[in-house]
Specification:
Distance between the termini: 43 Å
Structural class: mainly alpha
Bound molecules: fe (ii) ion
Number of strands: 2
Radius of gyration: 17 Å
Shape: globular
CATH superfamily of the domain at 12-153: Hypothetical protein af1432
Largest sheet: 2 strands, antiparallel
CATH class of the domain at 12-153: Mainly Alpha
Length: 208
């Protein structure tokens, strides 16, 4: 159990963490309808996966609720929240990438999230990173397989893997996303390539 700083305690908090209802109220203002529906889908999926794989369900719920909390902001606002990451030339103009570090900063500042594991799951949910924690993997995967997601090739198999083996699911998810991005003629962020390369080493000694 974590003990929050005294000023964070109040009717909107439980053990120092912002209560789910309070987080949802704020998200309703910050996100559009589709993003909110997606967020709730990620939460339901992440909590199920947390139960399955022995992760803290409350942390999974908060990480999922907050993973896209900055998604509907302007690019300039994201850049202001994630100043360090915005220096990365690939991240600088990409809302798709920058909303993750911006979300982690916003979760800390606005939603008073202090759990570094939760903040880190928000931070890495778009690119992944080598040596991901169990909660980071759960959020990364729940984001891809939540029930409101439009279908994509391999989704059924990925969903099945997500109920059996987190690492096998991560390997497939990373492999498929990298192939997709490359097929679109776009560049893959180095963090994602490094994460995939980690899994390649784990599963087939580095051979593609
Ligand atoms: Fe996201
Ligand atoms: Fe998302």
């Amino acid at each position: 159990m974590r003990y929050g700083s005294p000023e964070t305690f109040g009717k909107d908090y439980c053990f120092g963490y912002m209560k789910r209802e309070k987080i949802l109220k704020k998200l309703e203002k910050a996100l559009d309808k589709d993003r909110l529906r997606h967020t709730l889908g990620v939460e339901a999926t992440a909590v199920q996966m947390a139960i399955l794989f022995g992760e803290d369900t409350k942390a999974a719920s908060r990480a999922a609720l907050l993973h896209d909390c900055a998604k509907c902001m302007k690019l300039s606002e994201m850049q202001g929240l994630a100043k360090e990451e915005a220096k990365d030339p690939m991240m600088h103009d990409s809302k798709a990438l920058l909303h993750a570090p911006a979300g982690a900063a916003l979760a800390r500042e606005e939603y008073k999230e202090e759990d570094e594991g939760v903040l880190s799951a928000i931070r890495w949910h778009t690119t992944g990173r080598p040596g991901m924690t169990r909660l980071e993997k759960i959020i990364y995967l729940a984001d891809m397989i939540e029930p409101n997601r439009r279908t994509f090739p391999g989704l059924d198999e990925l969903r099945m893997l997500c109920s059996q083996d987190l690492d096998a699911a991560m390997y497939k998810a990373l492999n498929d996303s990298v192939s997709y991005v490359l097929s679109q003629g776009k560049t893959v962020h180095p963090d994602t390539l490094n994460t995939l390369s980690d899994y390649k080493n784990k599963y087939n000694g580095g051979a593609v």
